[in-house]
Amino acid sequence: MDLEAMMNATANVNLEDVLHDCRPMFVVYKNGRVHRFMGTDRVPPSVDSITGVESKDVVIDLETGVYVRLYKPRNVEKVGVLVYIHGGAFCAETASSPLYHNYLNNLSFKANVIVVSVDYRTAPEYPLPTGYEDSWTAVKWVFETNHVEPWLRDHVDRSRVYMAGDSAGANIVHNLVKRVSRVSYPLKGIVLIHPYFWGKDRIGSEEKRVESIGFNSLMDKVWMVACPDSSGLDDPRLNPRMDRELGELGVDKVFVSVAELDTLRDRGFYYKDLLLKSGWKGDIYVIETLGENHVFHLFEPHSAKSVELMNQIVAFLHS
């Protein structure tokens, strides 16, 4: 569904009662109520009948209720672990979303890794930096905990830890990896799928893209609602060009996926340029999928191009 169609589908909103209009994702009413139009479905953990991957939920912070959904391949011994952070513009989706449950079940099977999918608290009820901090709690849980959790205790090789995320989740991964260098976690690499980076000034083809006419305004509004204490669209958490610590990225390998029709496409290529100019000494790979839009792989997981992207990510995790 394109942006105009989604806006029409959410047209029955009384704007006089609305404080923040971020359709088609959500609206915030003046009385404080939040109405989400997407990303609210849930599925329970399970044993997948096709792949044999088993999943379960584990609360990692009793005070906040933050949990992770773990995915374990069948007949696994010692394998790597992938900490995955979901997208949704910091405001939608969860670790138990059917989109992410199905995708990560398949990724765990094909990559033969244990996946730790983070259910961070979302804005606007929990504005940033809550999502960053909840996700960092999960990273520390993986690296530092003397695990009573048997899947991590018995089956994970913690010298083979990767992080990945899509859209806002990719943004969170990027911002957390800067912390990794300060604590010397042995992180092997990161995967950023269609990363949510932005800025006050348009770059590349952003201004020319017809579909970005309404999208630019939405991106601007969502960030300021999700992060009300932000300095603006050039906040270094959103715009890596403004990040003086960019060269301190605590990882040696970065995989970036962009989609040709995605308004965020040029930000992925720009990220590579910025990272290489920052003094960072690692290797970065940017892969473009032609003819596809933002997070297409979640909505069409069995398409030829989604399978190709999956295979590229699996190859990176085993490189």
Report on the architecture of this protein:
GO terms for molecular function: hydrolase activity. This is Alpha/beta hydrolase fold-3 domain-containing protein. The active site is at residue 167. With 319 residues, the chain is an alpha/beta fold. It contains nine helices and eleven strands. It has helices at residues 3-9, 98-111, 130-144, 150-155, 168-183, 212-226, 265-277, 296-299, 304-317; strands at residues 18-22, 26-29, 34-36, 54-59, 67-72, 79-85, 114-119, 156-166, 187-193, 253-259, 283-289. The strands form two sheets. Strands 4-5-7-6-8-9-10-11 form an eight-stranded mixed sheet, with helices on both faces. Helix 2 links the parallel strand 6 and strand 7 (114-119). The longest helix has 16 residues, at 168-183. The two termini are 36 Å apart. Mean pLDDT is 92; it is low at 1-5.
Give a brief rundown of this model.
By secondary structure, this protein is α/β, with parallel strands linked by helices.
